[in-house]
Amino acid sequence: MSQYASERTTRIARQYDLFQASLETTEKQRKYLNYGYTITGDESYEQRQEQLCMEVFRAAELTRDHVVVDVGFGSGEQDFLLVRTCEFARLIGYNIAETQVRYASARAAHEGLAGKLEFRAGEAEALPGLAPASVDRVMAIECAFYFDRPRFYERAAEVLKPGGRLVLADICFSDACTWLARPRVGTASGNRREWEKFFHTRSIRPIHQHTRPGAQMTVTQIFKTMPRATLTFAQRVEWLKMAIASQIVALGLRTRLLHYDLIVLER
Ligand SMILES: C[S@@+](CC[C@H](N)C(=O)[O-])C[C@H]1O[C@@H](n2cnc3c(N)ncnc32)[C@H](O)[C@@H]1O
Fold first, then answer.
1. How many angstroms does the Cα of residue 124 sit away from the middle of ligand 1?
2. For position 108, what pLDDT does the model report?
3. Buried b (16+ CB within 10 A) or exposed e, 34-72
4. Distance in Å, CA 184 to ligand 1 centroid
């Protein structure tokens, strides 16, 4: 890994460590960190966030014997939802933010789910400890734009069994703004070219109409739930950066300079 890559990963991990620490002091019951998926337009923010995860679970078509890997699992909230709503054999989560790994692991132990849900510190690009062709599904909910995509696609393909699936709720730039695209976020065609070195594309469903309203709401949610009195300066800065980023994403989705897609890839 280049020095740039490791510095970047450390910066992202620090950012999510700070989010997690402040989320643990808020009233927010469900600790999702995604823009959500709206169907009726009158769901709460947390219902929308849950619905985005449910869309990914449905696309994954899990069965009771499946071994699932969840990369960039945030606080792990989505994996506790998965236990409540789907049958599968076991799940291994990977996250670079150690505070989130500690929180999710402690919660799994507390809820008697440690045999079912295992949360590991590690990069999605590396998936340490997984044998080749040992996994049925890999899920990435609103996080692949942080990854070194070529390395991630290659490693996900390696650990998946033949016929296994990688399912992503993913944001990228439209092909019209290649000049603007950041390397990790990538463009629709550029990312597809990379994954098709390893995967067959089963489906790509544009879901920006369902996710944009939540991105837009994020700023008010942050100011409503942020426990201002207890936040450190560094935490305030990170929440502020997230609030600004959410509005840029909402604008990008409205103008179609950004895509938000539900992508199902098969090994
Ligand atoms: C926007 S949050 C999404 C969290 C969660 N999937 C959800 O929907 O609530 C992005 C997550 O990806 C994690 N992440 C970022 N880069 C990563 C990497 N290279 N490997 C593993 N996790 C990573 C962050 O620590 C964070 O937990």
1. 9
2. 98
3. bbbbbeeeebebbebbbbbbbbbbebbebeeebbbbbbb
4. 13
